[in-house]
Amino acid sequence: MSDLTVIKNAFANLCRGGAVALSMLLLPPFLARILTKDTYGTWLLILQLSAYVSLLDLGIQTVIGRFVAHYNELGDIKKRDSIVSSAVAMLTGSATIALVGIALLAWQLPQLFKDMPANLQQDAQLALLCVGSSLAVSLPLTTFGAVFLGLQRYDVPAWIIGSTKILAGILIVLVAQSTHSIVVMGVVFGATNIAAGLWQYLAFRKMAVGYRVSTNLVSKKSLGEVLESCLAISISSLGLLIVGGLDTTVIGFFDYKSVSYYALAATLTNFVFGVASSILNTVIPVASSVGARNEPAKLGELLVSTTRYSVIVLIATNLPLLLLSKTIMTFWVGADYANNTDRLFEWLIAANFVRQIGSPYFTIAIGCGEHRKIILSPLIEAVVNLIVSVTLTSRIGASGVAIGTLVGGFASVGLHYFYNLPRTKKIFIANRSDLIAVVSKPIAIVVIPIVSLFFIYKYAIAEQNLIISTLVSAILTLLSWAGLWKYVLTDGDRALVLSSFQRLVLRRKPQN
To answer: How far apart are CA 315 and CA 350, in angstroms?
Structure first.
């Protein structure tokens, strides 16, 4: 696979993640001003609870992309179609379980969140049914979009998901303004979810020439193969549910008034990390193809280079978010939300940055079929996170969840490096210090100096003027980018960035 293909796929995933994130970013400024804090907090809680359905995805979307790339590489068309058909059957079963679970959760909602205002309880139950059920029904349909990932056609699901998310955002704002009803908002959200799933199916029927999906192709062997491959991802998804999916729920138990504040802080951090993850996921088919050829040294090189670029992207996107968080939040949803989310931002950005450092290894291990070697770390991260989060949130409020995420992130990265990597035989790194170097160098050169200057300015000088604070933060942001460009990127990196910019943005061939 050429570098340009990888870049195009990364760009498509970036557009997809950007469109989804854009809808996430455009909704809060409107909804936070249209709805009361209690109503908006309840809506955010509904979205969080509905997201539990994604756990029953079992990671099949990621696995299908890998299997399609793998069996296309081997030329085994019959096995490929059996895998896809079996995945559809599995997700149909998952959808049934999800529908029952959402119904039970909606029934018990008032008992679970006793501090939820009484006038919102019935509407919350109905909205949860609409949103959660639509996600459940869409589960088997997402398989068809996953096939395009294995075909290196990331642009197809990117366009479908991106456009429907933007449409959903626009419609939700309109109905919120006209009805102030979270039930109607839930209906709109659900309808666009199902539409996106059907669109992926129709695209598959039209564009995936030569593929067959039938109940006759479902086999026990293929089901077992998919389930085995999904095991690590499912456990990771459970870990992610505890790490990022239970945070709002835990706060709802202990500190309901802070639900909207925390959810808004998490939205901004998730936006940045979602974009970075969209880019990173493009290496899964690459790892699958290399793994099929049994080339551990090349996978080791891929891990080091992917980790290096991932850390650079994380720094380039997260430092501005940290430095300009107060300004961004003030203009985004107003001064009240900005004042109540400032400290949460700092903890969440640090926590998610640490967690994402281990993502390249996890992604490549899945891509090359070493998923069984990485089961333990997400479980331990989840347990550590949950224990710390519940303990601290019951004492200090919403910040406890963010601190728990940070502690769990350190546990996860440590396990990946010291326990999982030495056992992953398909990934060979001659000198593991190279992996440490690609992480530590940009942190030492850029992150530590810039963040130190920022906190000295913020807490020692304590300038209250928003314009001056914004100017200082903007200068520090530019310095961080300049540091990455000058001292972290190589000459080859800079040439590749400029070449890609000319090809993908300016639409012209780079000059030799």
So the answer is: 11
Q: What is the CA radius of gyration of the chain?
A: 23
Note the maximum CA span of the chain.
70
By the 8 A CB rule, do 149 and 64 touch?
Answer: yes
Q: Are residues 406 and 258 in the same domain?
A: yes
| Claim to verify: residue 167 and residue 253 sit in the same structural domain | no
Which two three-digit tokens encode residue 93?
A: 């079963």
For tokens 């969209």, the residue is 278
Query: Which 3 state secondary structure label does DSSP give 369?
Result: coil
The verdict on 335 and 413 lying in the same domain is: yes
CA 341, 346, 349, 355 torsion: positive or negative?
A: negative
> What one-character DSSP code corresponds to residue 104?
H
b/e sequence 435-453, b meaning 16+ C-beta within 10 Å: beebbeebbebbbeebbee
What distance in Å separates the CA atoms of residue 348 and residue 403, rounded to the nearest whole number? 8
3-state secondary structure of 116: coil
147 contacts 204 by C-beta, under 8 angstroms = yes
Give the separation between CA 407 and CA 200, rounded to whole angstroms. 38
pLDDT in tens, 28-42: 888 888 998 889 989
Cα distance between residue 293 and residue 300, in whole Å: 14
Q: Which of 502, 499, 497, 471 is nearest to 484 (CA)?
A: 497
d(CA 178, CA 180): 6
Domain enclosing residue 237, as ranges: 229-435
- Residue 86 inside a domain? The answer is yes
Domain count, the chain: 2
| CB-facing half-sphere around the CA of 380: CA atoms within 13 A | 16
Tens digits of residue pLDDT in 367-410: 676 766 777 777 788 889 889 999 999 888 888 988 998 998 89
Q: Which distant-in-sequence residues (6+ apart) come within 8 Å of 129 by Cβ?
A: 102, 103, 106, 186
In a domain, 502, yes or no: no
Residue with tokens 């039970």: 104
> Which two three-digit tokens encode residue 464?
């209250």
CB 143 within 8 A of CB 211: no
pLDDT reading at 54 higher than 70: yes
